[in-house]
Structure formats: structure tokens, C-alpha cells
Amino acid sequence: MQFVLSDPSLHWRDLWFLLQGAGHTLWVTLVAGLLGTLGGILLGWMRFGSVWLRWFTAPYVDVVRSVPMIIQLILANSFLALSGLGVNAFWLSVLVLSSSMAVVTSEVVRGGLEAVPPTYRRAARSLGINWLQEFCHISAPLALRTSFAAWVGLLLGLAKDSALVSVVGYVEYMKSTQILITRTHEALLLLLGVGLFYFVICYPVSRYSARLERRMAL
Amino acid sequence: MFGYTFYWSLVWDAIPELLAGAWLTVQLAALSMLLGTVFGLPLAVARRQGEGRAYRLATAWVELARNTPTLFQIYMMYFGLGALGIQISSYWAVLIALTFNNTGYLAEIFRGGLAGIARQQLAAARSLGLNQRQGYLHVVFPQLLRIVFPGYVTQAVWAMLNTSLGMLVGLQELSGAAQSAQSVSFRSFEFFLITALIYYVIAKLIEFGARAVFWRWLRT
Q1: For residue B219, is it within any domain?
Q2: Residue B3 is assigned to a structural domain of this protein
Q3: Does B16 touch chain A (CB under 8 A)?
Q4: Per-residue confidence at B3, pLDDT binned at 50, 70, 90?
Q5: Can you give the CATH number for the domain in which B18 is found?
Q6: How many CA atoms lie within 13 A of A161 on its CB side?
Q7: Number of domains in chain B
């Protein structure tokens, strides 16, 4: 019997494998970005509105910002393995990425809400609209204006951080590149592909965000 | 659900290795911040010119550093250079990549700070007989430090956290040390919990140290 070793050189079909990885990167970024943003808006609003809640959520915010993402991923992975809950690599990645996204978003949201002059808020309330209407029609639009560009920056940070989720076994673009490097030893070519991939996504968006920031400056 | 017994004694035995790793983490963070500052300052000045070769080089550096993952930059130094036949140790790969990364971010922080210093200050320095370099060194940069201080400290914490990526190229910094220490027993949860705690303490030490420095020397 003859053993057939897999052909170590790069093939066109590897491109399909890379594309799948790229799709996974975008997908995990999108889902974590969405959940993290919603969570972050809620957390930021809570932290803005109540001193008690700010004090209560401070340890969480503090820890997430002071422990490396990679350690958070490994810890979440071992914790879920111990707990016996069957969570797959994708949702585990989404959990950790969105928790980090929520924390950084909450700071931006809080900053945005704090930038709304209290006099506006009081004026709105004295005109007879309730706090929810005030939030929806006065505070939120003004806060959005000041914090949108920063939020776009956070989203780009999230896209770049998603390159780390391979440590818990989710095969996104970076990991699929690594797998191909192990087989083909075409490290430079494949890595340049990685750089190009992230740059092509991040650069136009960051340029757009910088322009927006200048235009929206109050 | 949690039929798990914690074995802390294993972690306790590995504390010397973890602390050695933590020292390497601190060292890498400090060196990459120092070098990032040294390269970032001229880059920020070049970025303000808005034209010319220096401006284009600085812009390319800043955009590349900020728009690609740090992990990619480390892999590029370690595996990418390796493919070109240039073998460097994981220590140098991480140091060079993190310096490249920090320089890009710090240059933008400095550029933002420079915008807050009136251009006339440099002209005044020149008219007092200082040359361009002296003007920046003795007049502009000392003021810049005070303006950018909060952003600078955030970046320092971030640089420290980023050293954890060294683990993925086999460097024995804090995460890497924890990774090899736990591989004997596979008690990964205990080990990484303590690792997280050490990172937290280092981050807090940086923040409190920075606050002390600000209070002592930079307060106006």
C-alpha cells in the first residue's frame, strides 16, 4: 500500500479556505460588534445615569480593560469547559469580544452623554416632555454626534482583536492562514495577504471616521 | 455542574516562573514605549508638515501600524522575516513589532497634542537663537508631555497588555510562562486566573504610578 502525502504547495482551492476564514472574521466581528454595541449603550447609559450603578459596574469595566484579551479568551474557555456547558468556539469568541466591546463602547457613550449640556436637558424637561422623550429626542442625538467617530474606531479595534479568537479554536482568517503556513511554508506571501486583508477593511473606514470627526466637531 | 476542585498549590509552586514572566512583560512594555516615544515624536512632527518625503513615510508608518492587527505585526517579524532568511528570536520579534505598533499610535497622540501648542512658540524659540531641533526639544516637547499625558498612560497600559501576544510566538513573558507552567498539569483555569490577576496589578501600578508622576511633576 502506498501512502499519498498531501501536496504541500499552495493551490487555488486554498483560496476558498482563506475566503471562508475571511468570512468567519467578518461574521464574528459583525455579531460581536452588534451585541457589544447594544450592551455598551445600555451599560454606558446606566453608568451615566446612576452613581450607584457606576460604582457597581466599575469592577467589571476595570477588569475587562486591565486583562489582555487573549487571557480573557483562555479563561472563558477553561471556565466553560469546567462548567460543562457546551458552548462552541464561535459563541465563546462572540461572548468575550462583545463583552470587551460593550465595556469600551460604554465609556464612549458615557462620555457622549456627559458632553450634552445639562441646561439642554433641563430646558427639555421644563417644556413638559418626559425623560424618555428627552433621551430619545435631545440627549441621544447629541451624544451620537460626539461619539460616533470614536465608536467607529472601537469597531475597527474589534475587527483587529478578532484575530486573537483562534486561541479558543475558532478558525478565522488569521488561523486559516496559520494552517496554510504550517502546510506550505509560504509564510511571507500568506502573511502579506493577512496584512492586506485587514488594511483594506480598516484603512478606508478609519479615513472615513477621521473625516466624519472633523465634520461633526461641535 | 461544577464538580471541580481547585489546586492552588500547583500555581503556588510556579510563582517564581510567573514572576519572571511578569518581569519580562514589564521590560518589553517599558522598552517598546520608550522606543515608541523616541520614534513617535519625529513622526508626529513630520505628519504635521503635510507634504514631502518625511510626511509620506510617517503617514505610511502610522496607517500601517494602526490598521493591521498587532498579532499580524508580530507574526510578520517572526515568521515573515524568517521566510526571508532573517531569523530573529521571539524576544526581538515582539519588541520590534510592539515598537512599530506603539510608534504608530503614539505619533497620532503626539500629533493631537502638537495641535494644542501654538506654532508661534517655535518661531519665538527660533528668534531667540535656538535651531529647529533645539526648539522642539526644549520648548515644544516638554509642554507636549503634559498635554498628552492621559493618552500616553492609556497607551502604556495597552502596550503592556499587548505583550501577551508574545505567547503565540513562544516567548516566555507572563502569558507564555503561564502557558508552559500549566502544560505540566493542565490546570489552566487556576494558572490563567492568577495570570489575569498579575496583569491587573501591573496595569493598576502603571496607572497609579502615572498619577503620582502627574501629581508630583506635571501639575499646573
Answers
A1: no
A2: no
A3: no
A4: low
A5: 1.10.3720.10
A6: 28
A7: 1
